[in-house]
């Protein structure tokens, strides 16, 4: 079943340099977008481990005709979602932007999201091209999409260099360097959720022991709390119990943010970044999560603070960031 919600609005997009997957050959090209108005509307797609979302992004950066489904519906659900979203608008859709959980392959259009085990080397762009044969399609990682949007019109606006992060069912990152997103060979630069920060076995779906996602994602903090005797099975419940003073819930959140802070410092030191924007469902827990993260980051960023303290910022575009960022990567000349 699709869910609809009211439109949200933001200012027009500025120009950016991005990388696009060409609809015919899936090769990588680089160019500048001169004017966003001439490229809208865009059908924007957000592929997450928990849900798939699609919206139309208008020429004024308005998010309309929003629909979402559980990711467990895979391609059958997604294809139906996209066709229904197209039917919602009277506008011709000639461009599609995708922000997908990773890793992704922008050269082939295939994706292999760690937390969607049913999709390994799934031909996402070729399948979408079959549904929309005359469209231009661009794809980046979901955290890159968030970073692009937040850097352009959200919490990171005005910074030249920035780390954008998604903390949810999984953990991802997108790096902005000199006002441009860093994508790497296949679109996975900044995909740091599976960097190792210890030897704890958090049962991460990637199969590694000690990766940051195994410590600090929402499900991983829940598993850690369960090991302490907490009886819940959802991060929202975990955060609520922590707010109420449950010692196991508080310890699990502290455990997660402690290791996430280590990872943030590792990445920011590599690229000399001092702006970090965090989005994703986990931060919706509010101060019971955010304050410990601030404290942990301050304790680990001592060397960076000798130059300039890291500015830890909450994403402003909330759940629309990935969709807006996906729209921004389409229509390059």
Task: Write up what this structure looks like.
The protein is of the alpha/beta class and 333 residues long. The chain has two domains: 17-146 and 320-328, ATPase, nucleotide binding domain (Nucleotidyltransferase, domain 5, 2-Layer Sandwich), CATH 3.30.420.40; 158-315, Nucleotidyltransferase, domain 5 (2-Layer Sandwich). Helix content is 33%, strand content 22%. The protein has ten helices and 14 strands. It has helices at 74-87, 124-131, 142-153, 212-216, 218-227, 235-243, 247-271, 287-300, 302-305, 321-328; strands spanning 17-21, 28-32, 42-47, 51-57, 63-70, 95-100, 104-105, 110-111, 136-141, 162-167, 171-177, 180-182, 275-279, 311-314. It has a five-stranded mixed β-sheet with strand order 5-4-3-6-9, sandwiched between helices. It has a five-stranded mixed β-sheet with strand order 12-11-10-13-14, with helices on both faces. Strands 1-2 form a two-stranded antiparallel sheet. Helix 3 (142-153) crosses helix 10 (321-328), helix 6 crosses helix 7 (247-271) and helix 7 (247-271) packs across helix 8 (287-300). It is globular, with a radius of gyration of 19 Å. Residues 1-38 have low confidence and may be disordered.
């Amino acid at each position: 079943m699709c869910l609809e919600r009211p439109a949200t609005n933001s200012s027009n997009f500025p120009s950016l340099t991005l990388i696009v997957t060409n609809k015919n050959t899936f090769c990588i090209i680089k160019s500048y977008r001169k004017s966003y108005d001439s490229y809208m509307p865009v059908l924007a797609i957000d592929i997450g481990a928990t849900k798939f979302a699609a919206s139309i992004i208008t020429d004024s950066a308005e998010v309309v005709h929003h629909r979402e489904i559980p990711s467990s519906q895979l391609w059958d659900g997604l294809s139906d979602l996209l066709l229904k979203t197209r039917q919602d608008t009277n506008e011709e859709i000639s461009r599609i932007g995708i922000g997908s959980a990773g890793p992704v392959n922008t050269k082939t259009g295939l994706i292999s999201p760690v937390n969607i085990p049913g999709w390994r080397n799934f031909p996402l762009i070729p399948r979408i091209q079959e549904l929309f044969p005359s469209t231009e399609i661009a794809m980046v990682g979901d955290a890159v999409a968030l970073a692009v949007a937040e850097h352009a019109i959200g919490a990171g606006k005005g910074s030249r260099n920035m780390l954008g992060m998604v903390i949810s069912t999984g953990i991802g990152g997108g790096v902005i360097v000199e006002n441009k997103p860093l994508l790497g060979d296949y679109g996975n630069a900044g995909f740091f959720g599976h960097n190792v920060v210890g030897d704890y076995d958090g049962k991460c779906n990637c199969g590694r022991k000690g990766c940051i996602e195994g410590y600090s994602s929402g499900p991983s903090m829940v598993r850690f709390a369960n090991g302490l005797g907490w009886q819940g099975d959802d991060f929202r419940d975990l955060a609520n119990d922590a707010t109420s003073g449950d010692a196991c819930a508080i310890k699990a959140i502290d455990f997660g943010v402690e290791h996430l802070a280590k990872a943030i410092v590792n990445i920011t030191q590599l690229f000399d970044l001092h702006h970090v924007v965090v989005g994703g469902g986990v931060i919706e827990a509010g101060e019971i999560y955010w304050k410990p993260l601030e404290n942990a980051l301050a304790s680990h960023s001592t060397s960076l603070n000798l130059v300039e303290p890291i500015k830890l910022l909450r994403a402003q575009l909330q759940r629309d960031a990935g969709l807006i960022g996906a729209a921004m990567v389409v229509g390059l000349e």
